[in-house]
Design brief:
The structure is a single chain. Helix 2 packs antiparallel against helix 4 and helix 6 packs antiparallel against helix 7. The protein has 8 helices and 6 strands. It is mainly alpha-helical. A hairpin with a 2-residue loop joins strand 5 and strand 6. It has a two-stranded antiparallel sheet. A two-stranded antiparallel ribbon has the order 3-4. The protein starts with a strand and ends with a helix.
């Protein structure tokens, strides 16, 4: 069983979860900046958007998670800020980040679609890296399986289980390379790469979520699957709309 704490010096504890999220942000920012330069977008304004969107994404990801685990957090309100123990819902983060980016880029008079296309590969790569934080926290795993039938099963929480965090890591890496390939090989209208990212990520998330045992629930429904279906529909509508419309 992995130790969730990377370094412990007295009262200071540095957790793998935080280190991996920080790495995801740094790698994603580096890649996005390279593309921003190619598109001749004002780097200072982009960084202003990024430095606002990142904390908003964290807050919205946490609020999303807490909202759908309210039975627990209403009885343990002191644990609401404890993000170091895990509990960040990526769908909430995506909604929060893109919402604040839309507002700020409108103010700066910079094309939202152009910036969204630039950061889309970085976002899915960051999501892939961040999934390993779930491994060290021993969360976001699947149901128990027979290791003979599922030889790639991992020993988690006292049993061999589907490593759903690994499934999503591999899927997201695949989506990342697909986006890079499409961006390099095809000249797409602004916003279409964003649509492909939203749809590609959400298709994988919908199916992988079906293996998990700790899904956020909305009644009898898995919330991530509901949100993924909504994102898939949005991505299709967005792709059709932007394909037919001249984006200024």
């Amino acid at each position: 069983m992995p130790d969730p704490i990377l370094i412990e010096i007295g009262f200071l504890k540095i957790r793998w979860y935080g280190v991996l999220i920080a790495a995801a942000i740094l790698v994603g920012t580096f890649l996005a900046l390279k593309e921003i330069k190619k598109k001749n977008i004002d780097e200072d304004k982009f960084m202003n958007v990024l430095l606002t969107a990142i904390p908003v994404a964290f807050i919205s990801a946490r609020l999303y998670y807490v909202a759908f685990n309210w039975d627990y957090y209403s009885l343990n309100p002191g644990e609401i800020p404890a993000v170091w123990n895990g509990g960040l819902a990526i769908h909430g983060g995506i909604i929060g980040a893109f919402s604040v980016a839309w507002i700020m880029l409108k103010y700066y008079k910079i094309s939202f679609w152009q910036v969204a296309d630039a950061v889309a590969p970085s976002m899915v790569l960051g999501q892939a890296i961040g999934r390993w934080g779930n491994y060290f926290n021993q969360e976001a795993y699947g149901y128990e399986v027979d290791p003979v039938s599922v030889p790639w099963a991992m020993w988690i929480d006292g049993a061999y289980r589907h490593p759903t965090f690994l499934y999503e890591f591999l899927w997201n890496i695949g989506v990342f390379f697909l986006l890079i390939l499409i961006r390099e090989k095809f000249k797409l209208k602004e916003g279409l790469l964003l649509a492909i990212y939203l749809g590609g990520y959400s298709i994988g998330r919908f199916f992988i979520e079906g293996f998990r045992t700790d899904s956020l629930m909305l009644g009898s429904l898995r919330m991530a699957q509901v949100t993924s279906l909504i994102f898939i529909i949005i991505s299709i509508v967005l792709y059709i709309y932007l394909s037919r419309k001249k984006i200024s």
